[in-house]
Amino acid sequence: MAFQKLLPEGPLSRAVYDMGFEEPTDVQLRVIPLIREGRDVMAQSQTGTGKTAAFAIPTLEKVDPKLYAAQVLVLCPTRELAVQVAAQYTLLAKYLDDVRALPLYGGEEIRRQIERLKRHPQVIVGTPGRILDHLRRRTLKLEHLHTLVLDEADEMLNMGFREDIEKVLEQIPGETQRLLFSATIPKAIRQLSGEYLDEPALVEVKASGISAAGIRQQVVRVKREHKKDALLRLLELRNPSRALLFCNTKAMVDELSLFLQEKGYSVEAMHGDMKQEQRIRVLQQFNRGGLEILAATDVAARGLDIDDVDLVISYDVPQSPEYYVHRIGRSGRAGKSGESILMFTSRDSAAFRAIEQYIKRGIEPLEIPSLSELDTVRIKRFLKKLKEEIPHTDIEEYRPMLKHFEKLALQPEAIIATLLRMGMDLYGEEGKDLNIPKPSQKKHNKQRGRHAPAKGQRKKSRYDRRG
Length: 467
Prior knowledge:
By secondary structure, the chain is α/β, with parallel strands linked by helices. It has 21 helices and 14 strands. The chain folds into two domains: 3-204, P-loop containing nucleotide triphosphate hydrolases (Rossmann fold); 215-371, Rossmann fold, CATH 3.40.50. 44% of the residues lie in helices and 13% in strands. The two termini are 47 Å apart.
């Protein structure tokens, strides 16, 4: 079904076309008609399924552009998500006369926000604490509100925002339409829905279906002390143009970012200890293609609208299976194929089994490549690039240099081989095997009276990225 059939011809359909939406997603097909009917809705939907447009399109249809007052309020768990949702509203309202969206969040000077509120935006998107702050100051008034959206509701509860959410809910008009979107529907979400939503329509999208669609999921077993070296080998093996690297702690995000920068990668960190201006700058840099890798915690990356990620690496096993689904959902969006790699150590075995049970499928094992295997990969890439460049090379420009080679009376094969050796800087050795032997391999090694040998140890600098 094309979007044109879901949306009548007009300003919104033009904006949807400009944004490149062609066919509505499942959640959009199911939720948009319910919101148009005026129903309260509780929708289970993951990041990357088009849920923002699912509530933004029909709520914008109800906005009166001549009424300069808050008409739609969206509550989000993080500043980043608030900025992203407000940005999507702005894009969708591109051809609507004088309809504005404003993000409100902590960490930004409140006086600036008060000045922007004086322009009377119709759509307010914010974190619960900052929204409550403006309500107490009377700088935000909700008497003309017709729609309230709780986005990533489970995450807001996990972050301890329930009390703030309830205080906001107590101040909205009774006839306000209420929409709740959540990745999971635990008991706490059902209780919140029962208290504040009026006979909501339930829309469920199963997590297992989302996690498997178009994403090649792989897992690497590695010893804790070898994780960084294994990460470098995996990055060189896959050579991603845009990758997300997830860690469980802010400290590890910073540590890995610095480590990869020292190895020649273009990488930045994103976590809650960074100033808002820094996080927005990093996100914009990543979206413009200025970064190869964005290292982030789950909370900092939650809800960010990031497209065209070809690889997601979970350096740490996530703290819950739901986080795993959120992580890999960053890859393979909008019908594109994607890839994820999960790294885990022996102490992560229980958490890994929980993930496989949650997604109802096994995850494909991936071997950590040896250095000689990486040499082979590097040579293949070089030859491919060489083949592409040959038609664009003007031989006459290099004729004087070729004459010098002729005078040296050197064999062409020797010249080519030497240039390759000088230019490619191959490892030239097998290197340490970072894979954890399978039980059968361990038994075999024990019978032979030794463990599997690890050939010539390399200097750490050999891992440095090649130009």
